[in-house]
Amino acid sequence: MVRVAVRCSYCGHRLHRSLWSRVKKRVFGRNPKITPFQIVLLVVFVLLAYKIIVYLVERKPPTYTGE
Question: Over the stretch 16-64, which tens digit does the pLDDT of each residue have?
Fold first, then answer.
């Protein structure tokens, strides 16, 4: 089994990107600023999650009539 160094032996800097930095790069690309599209996507996601939660809370189970 080959071990790969995680940090530079000279300065201690991480040699591999963390999970967060990979996700951040995929979401934001090279520009770390938030775009209007990302804001709209976030608002749509939050509203959809809100509607689903409200629906599940207000949903009434079917009543049994005893037939």
Answer: 777 777 777 777 777 667 788 889 999 999 999 999 999 999 988 777 7
Cα distance between residue 19 and residue 32, in whole Å: 16
DSSP 10: T
d(CA 8, CA 15): 6
> Any idea what DSSP says for residue 5?
-
pTM: 0.46
HEC profile of 16-62? CCCHHHHHHHHHHCCCCCCCHHHHHHHHHHHHHHHHHHHHHHHCCCC
Quote the DSSP letter at residue 9.
T
